[in-house]
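Input set for joint prediction.
Command: fold jointly, output tokens.
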Amino acid sequence: MVSSVAIKTEPLVVNIGPQHPSTHGVFRMRVHLDGEVITDAEMVVGYLHRSMEKLAEERTWTQNIPFTDRMDYLAAMTGNLSYCIAVEKLAGIEVPERAQYLRVIFAELQRIASHAMANGTFVNDCGAWQTPLFYMFREREKILDLFEMACGARLTLNYMRIGGVAFEPPDEFWPQLQALIDELPARIDEYDRLLLDNEILVMRSRHVGMLSAEMAINSSVSGPILRGSGVAWDIRKANPYCVYDRMDFDIPVGNIGDCYDRFVVRMEEVRQSLRIIKQALVQLPAGSHTANIPLNLIPPAGEVYSAIESPKGELGFYLVSEGGPTPFRWHVRAPSLINLSPLREMVVGQSIPDAIVTLGSIDINVGEIDR
Amino acid sequence: MAVATITLSGTQVAERLDASAILEVAPGFVELAPGRLVEACRTLRDDRATDGRFLNSLNGVDRYDYFEVVYNISSLSHNHTLSLKVRTDHDQPEVPSVVSIWHGAHLQEREIYDLLGIRFAGHPDLKRLFLWDGFPGHPLRKDFMSLPGGEHPGLQRFPKEDPRAWGGEFRGD
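tokens >
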């Protein structure tokens, strides 16, 4: 009898990406399926590898700043900032106070823009096709307009310099920033109402892509994913750079470490970033926006590892100087790459749609993975 | 409220380790014998005083005569950081893998293997991360030519992949 024969399923290999709308760039995942359930997953990266670390060894310390724009192109400010802070530590450069505050303001604006993109594409992956994404793009657009006013670029900003920032923002910048700050809280509340209790979003992301706190720490995961797993670790608090030690803000953490928690953590971080910008605007001192440093800056021989809290996590630079005009070694600790370490553990046992949601919640940027 | 991450000096780290595993104690780091690396890392991770459960970064440096692998480790509970180094030979570079200690080393060791050619003994899945199998050489080595006018081993077409290798369907060239 036909009905008594057990249905035999063969293991199936499905290739997701590299050109796929849900993989956020040229990222590729190869998953092994048993029926609907993922039994193994392997990531394949390198399609955007531009050998920046090698190129950087042939350029001067200042010439390397634009490379950092092209790593995480959705958060170029923090890429600039991390590199400049690392070189300043290596060369022992003091940054003027006004420049420190300007850096904080721009880094936090960048965090809001990056989180808007991350959360927008995340709900896109959950099935809320495009509508919330374009709501969040509206806010991001205004921040990019501000960046354009300050430095003439929208994505590859190249705004930070070793010793400060490139330009003083123009006079029209400040009222527009103030208008954005006044408008954003109501907008974030609107997203909360639209999304936080949305049954579809909760069902698609609760208990999906779970990551325990121990696994997160052991896998060197950082940023909103680590905080989503309940670990209150933020380099802005733990090792304040610029003037974060003068700012009052909280570290939002998740409860169980699923995709929904990461979404909520990012949402809350936008509010905290706004708090920081408001305080920075009140405290902003007068003075120079940059230190006087020579164009052919040559840091003394030595090495430094310095990290900041980028929107994606711990963005660190390991720089080695041999006392020459160019870096001897220029290594980036890229949060997008290292946050993928527990990917297999997170997606095995789920179905493909859940794996897409999990990948969306990690918020990768392939420019930063491949460099 | 002046909180900041404390960088443990080489001497402070060396106190927690078996003296026979240490080759050099510098102000900023401790250099370990490669053979004792995994054991020392396990000690630093599990020791309550060091609590190095978070591996910040792991990377290699080509020093012409030898390779250096640098480990930056922090403790989230004590808010301190420390660094370790191991040296390996330039002709046959090989360092023990620390994936058994920190899962976060998995991709970083693959990256170093890809770009610098340092083998990590005991790594569960050591293969190239960014470049493809068969790519000639390791680009971040100092003797890899990349200047205009030099040899360009990097200027190669990305090879066509045979999908049959991973169970896919072959559609011809």
